[in-house]
Design brief:
heterotrimer; A alpha/beta (407); B mainly alpha (358); C mainly alpha (292); A: 407 residues; alpha/beta; Rossmann fold; 5-stranded parallel beta sheet; 18% strand; B: two-stranded antiparallel ribbon; 2 strands; globular
Chain lengths: 407, 358, 292
């Protein structure tokens, strides 16, 4: 063995030293700062910038930062500029909890925009509730939650999954096969789907879950082929979608033969799967890049000017909306105080890229228009059905008789 | 001052740093982060024992960490629910408390399970694996696959384990709110003291006859067997002890961070623990502890500045340490110390200090 | 019953994938005792090679990429061997950690070079069909992977048993010291072994673009499975790897058919631990008189 050089020695030995001095420094700036102190308002942005979820979450971070820039260009909120503090959740739920704590306690931010997976939200929830701080969560999710310290700007189940089922029912699809990644959202979604099917004369001919990151789908495709469904309801997540659709397609299934309704595939994912493999398949969201309207045209144009070659998608738009909704609530409240902002936020209405959205003061979700789309040969998504008007959010599905007993 | 006395003085100094200086100098949430690093350090201590002393490269330590964490989490969940079902069971469609959960309502049982369950499972696995002389790379890969399989199992049984979400949202930690500053201080002290006590115990073990036997097994298993000892027993006992430590670490992690989830037990976090031990210096227990604290600190502070770069730095640090200083920071320190000593009195240095045990 | 039979080709094709990803590992692991955690990233390098070649060869990129990826991944492996691993012989556990560091760097490099999202590799149009077999469909893409795996196995067998280089390789594998004193330049043989082993990972990567995602974390999805094949088959054992891969493929296929994908993985793990009780060194053992 050769003698070690001195350089790694220095690096390794300096770490603990850096640690102590670093920590000492924190104790000083820990007591200063303040969300609304000085001429700026600090807000936290907490998404996974590294790890498996970074693919999706980085784009949401970008659209949130763009919204902050837009507001700052118009003079900020309450005459102060918004200063984002960006943190990395690293695709790891405990890290989300700790970074949330850091943003609240050290940076003393006025609010936090962040999260993607349900697991990251569930991990952050106690931190925000206990510290009476505010989180804006921008992704469609499985419902059955309504924390007083979270605003949900993505769709809940009655704004995405239920309309998707309505659409399949309208098209006469009676036999449904459920495919999902093994985690909370697909399992809860499928529970709702089964209750819906029971009440609407549909049959669930199969229900399968695969581990996150699973890439071998030939057995599953085989099972689907044997069950002979009219449609597949797909709640797979991330990379598994690529493997599933490639293997589904090469086994001879396409949109004409067996339609697949997906709730986690947006414009961004279509590129990675390969348009040829998903062309013509169905997706359910509240927003597409092609959604008509002047607000969306401006949003898409601004975003693509800022991030070359980027597409816009539903969660990005919901994140963008979250920042604007929060700013509107702060303006109305005249302060960044959490209780006042919560109170002011109720009933706030904005024209956003997806159309008009309104905050429901009761459950802190947002009225959203449901849209079913078809994936086009150019990789964009064309709307083929919409609810026509924003649907009132109902995270516990209380207004649906078939859903009693679900929560 | 004798070497032994100097060792105790150093330990007392470090203990004072962690028990007096850190709590005074740091705000509560930084102290909480430090407590998290100390949790990892406890698990690292076990790896130092199993790998550094015993030569068993365990890449599945996250499993035992998780078992301890879940035992604690299950108790806290049941306590919060106060006779009802824990929240995640409600939305997972479970309507009756599973039999597996029932005994965890009892705090004494849960706390005992924190140590007992990992130890029993490690013993079982150890008996199966070591008796058949599965070792070295085979053992490493098996433990890694164990971590992968365990995570899949945990995630798949959502109604029983909370799935990917894990167990979170605890309201009451033995009468305290786990998010309150005062509780975070208390859990910090508990973690630091547990680490100190376990460190002293592990040191005692290493210095004992058993510890010498363990090192002998590491350096020449067959020779030890020819001398009439059973290496499988020695290895199994050590593996079980390290699993117990990981269990304790996991249990402390729950009140410190407020969550236990499968993402903590997977292949990568388990590997990262080993990495930390290697960087600190695997052949001494202090190196293992130091490595875990320093690496996790570096990870947190680095990701606050430059999220993407962390992987580069972690990878580069690792390649550098493995190629240039396989004995880690402690090894480098020893080498420098010996070099200085050699310059002072030009006598031949003891060969053991710079040789790498195979 | 019909679909039960249909699982047979599914099992074969899963086995072929496992074989392709594990083939290179049996080499480097078996001969050199190097546990190469960066093997998954060499697979990824192969997949990205196919992606890069699309600009010139469009639909046929996958075919052109096979030899190119072999060279690209092989060169990466060769660099790794020269720069680091040659200092690590006799310390297999340290190579595991070293190469893990390498794999982290390669993953982040891929993220910076090609972006975090998955990229798309278009399969040749003539691979898009399928044959009817035992009442089910067997896609051409799967047949192609099976054929490729077979070709690789035959190629390696011929190389090891029919060429001078291969003979040297086997000599080093069986007894490094004896080979060295008999005049075999073990260092050169090691370089070549690592080149071929890593190159095979590149070939596997190209094949995987037909069925799976192409992104920075591609390697992490396959690495654990690949190691399980090697462990079950025995170090450096070509026939062991073939049988283990096919057996695990069948186990995965029928395990998932009767239970679900999650449980199938757990079953595979339990079976392997059980199997190692009976044969702790894997299916086939290289006989050696050496003392540890």
């Amino acid at each position: 063995m050769r003698k070690p050089f001195l350089r790694p020695l220095a690096a390794v030995l300096l770490l603990p030293v850096a640690m102590l001095t670093g920590c000492g420094g924190d104790s000083k700036d820990g007591s200063s700062g303040g969300g609304a102190g000085g001429n700026t308002v600090k807000v936290g942005i907490l998404h996974s910038l590294s790890g498996t979820m970074s693919i999706s979450e980085v784009t949401v971070k970008n659209s949130e930062l763009m919204a902050i820039d837009e507001i700052n260009a118009k003079g900020g909120v309450l005459g102060k500029k918004i200063q984002p503090v960006v943190e990395d959740g690293a695709s790891d739920w405990p890290t989300f909890a700790q970074k949330a704590q850091k943003l609240i306690k050290k940076d003393k931010v006025a609010t936090v925009f962040g999260g993607w997976t349900s697991a990251s939200r569930k991990a952050m929830l106690p931190v925000f509730e206990r510290n009476k701080a505010l989180l804006w969560y921008p992704v469609q999710y499985e419902g059955l939650e309504s924390s007083p310290y979270i605003f949900y700007t993505g769709a809940t189940t009655n704004q995405q999954i239920v309309p998707a089922l309505d659409y399949l029912k309208e098209k006469g699809k009676k036999r449904i096969y459920l495919v999902g990644s093994d985690y909370v959202f697909p399992r809860t979604a499928n529970k709702i789907i089964k209750a819906y099917a029971k009440a609407n004369g549909m049959t669930i001919v199969g229900e399968e879950y695969t581990p996150l990151g699973h890439t071998e789908y030939s057995t599953l495709v085989n099972k689907i082929g044997t069950a002979k469904p009219d449609a597949v309801f797909n709640t797979l997540n991330g990379d598994s979608n690529v493997a599933f659709f490639k293997q589904f397609k090469s086994a001879g299934f396409d949109a004409a033969k067996l339609p697949v309704m997906s709730v986690s595939i947006a414009e961004e994912e279509v590129k990675g799967i390969g348009v040829a493999n998903v062309q013509g398949q169905l997706v359910a969201w509240n927003y597409y890049e092609t959604t008509p309207g002047a607000v969306n045209d401006a949003f898409v144009k601004a975003f693509q000017a800022k991030y070359k070659g980027a597409v816009t998608s539903d969660p990005m738009e919901a994140g963008y909306n979250a920042v604007h909704l929060w700013a509107a609530a702060v303006q109305k409240a005249g302060t960044t105080d959490v209780a006042a902002v919560k109170k002011a936020a109720a009933g706030i209405s904005l024209d956003t890229p997806e159309g008009k959205v309104t905050i429901d003061g009761e459950n802190q979700h947002v009225y959203k228009t449901a849209r079913i789309g078809v994936i086009q040969p150019d990789g964009l998504i064309k709307e083929v059905w919409s609810s026509g008007k924003p649907i009132k959010p109902d995270p516990y599905l209380k207004t649906y008789p078939w859903a009693t007993g679900l929560s | 001052m004798s070497a032994r006395l100097r060792g105790y003085a150093l330990f007392a100094g470090v203990a004072a740093l962690f028990l007096v200086v850190a709590p005074l100098a740091l705000p509560a949430f930084r102290l909480d982060e430090l407590a998290k690093y100390l949790c990892f350090a406890i698990a690292a201590l076990g790896i130092g024992l199993a790998w550094g002393q015993g030569g068993m490269l365990t890449l599945g330590q996250g499993v035992f960490f998780g078992l301890g964490g879940y035992a604690m989490g299950m108790y806290l969940k049941l306590h919060d629910a106060g006779g009802d079902l824990p929240d995640f069971m409600v939305w997972s469609g479970v309507d009756k408390l599973p039999a597996l959960w029932k005994p965890f309502g009892n705090p004494v049982f849960a706390l005992a399970a924190v140590v007992v369950v990992p130890v029993v499972i490690a013993t079982l696995l150890g008996v199966l694996v070591f008796r058949q002389r599965v070792r070295g790379a085979y053992f490493a890969i098996l433990t890694q696959a164990l971590a992968a399989a365990f995570v899949i199992l945990l995630v798949g049984q959502q109604g029983l384990t909370g799935g990917t979400n894990g167990l979170t949202n605890f309201y009451d930690f033995f009468g305290q709110d786990p998010e309150a500053d005062s509780t975070q201080r208390t859990t910090y002290f508990v973690t630091a003291i547990v680490l100190g006590v376990l460190y002293l115990l592990a040191r005692q073990l290493v210095k004992s006859r058993f510890g010498r036997l363990l090192v002998a097994v590491r350096d020449g298993e067959d020779r030890v067997r020819f001398l009439g000892y059973n290496p499988a027993t020695v290895k199994t006992i050590t593996f079980a002890i390290s699993a117990g430590m990981a269990g304790i670490a996991g249990a402390l992690f729950v009140p410190v961070v407020g969550i236990i989830s499968p993402s903590l037990l997977d292949v990568v976090p388990s590997l990262e623990l080993v990495v930390a031990v290697a960087i600190g210096g695997r052949y001494t227990l202090a190196g293992a502890v130091l490595g875990a604290v320093a690496m996790n600190y570096a990870k947190t502070s680095f990701s606050e500045q430059w999220a993407d770069g962390w992987l580069y730095l972690e990878g580069a640090l690792f390649i550098g340490v493995m190629t240039l200083a396989p004995r880690g920071a402690v090894g480098v320190y020893e080498q420098v110390r010996d070099a200085i000593a050699r310059r002072r009195k030009p006598v031949p240095a003891p060969p053991t200090a710079s040789e790498v045990p195979a | 019953m019909e679909s039960l039979l249909n699982q047979l080709p599914v099992g074969l094709s899963i086995g072929a994938v496992l074989l392709l990803i594990a083939l290179g590992l049996t080499f480097t692991f078996g001969q050199m005792g190097v546990i190469n955690m960066a093997h998954g990233e060499f697979i990824m390098a192969g997949a990205y090679t196919a992606y890069m070649l699309q600009d010139w060869f469009h639909g046929q990129a996958v075919i052109v990429a096979l030899p190119v990826a072999f060279v690209v991944a092989g060169t990466l492996g060769w660099i790794l061997e020269r720069a680091a691993i040659r200092h690590f012989y006799g310390r297999p556990l340290d190579t595991l950690l070293l190469t893990w560091g390498v794999s982290l760097v390669l993953q982040q490099a891929a993220r910076d070079l090609f972006g975090a999202p998955n990229v798309q590799v278009t399969a040749p149009s003539w691979l898009s069909g399928r044959v009817e077999l035992l009442g089910g469909n067997l896609p051409y893409a799967r047949l192609f992977i099976m054929g490729l795996a077979t070709a690789c196995v035959v190629g390696i067998w011929a190389y090891m048993n029919r060429s001078r280089q291969g003979r040297r390789m086997r000599a080093v594998m069986q007894n490094r010291e004896l080979a060295a004193v008999s005049g075999v330049a073990t260092g050169r043989v090691d370089q070549l072994t690592f080149f071929i082993g890593s190159g095979l990972a590149g070939v596997a990567g190209v094949a995987l673009t037909l069925i799976g995602p192409v992104g920075p974390s591609l390697g992490t999805y396959y690495i654990v499975d690949a190691f399980l094949v090697v462990v079950a088959g025995g170090l450096g054992q070509l026939r062991g790897a073939v049988i283990a891969a096919l057996a695990l493929g069948m186990l995965n296929s029928y395990g998932e058919f009767w239970t679900d994908a999650s449980l199938a993985k757990v079953i595979v793990f339990v079976v392997i631990v059980g199997f190692l009780q009976v044969r702790p060194q894997g299916l086939f053992v290289l006989r050696s008189r050496a003392l540890t």
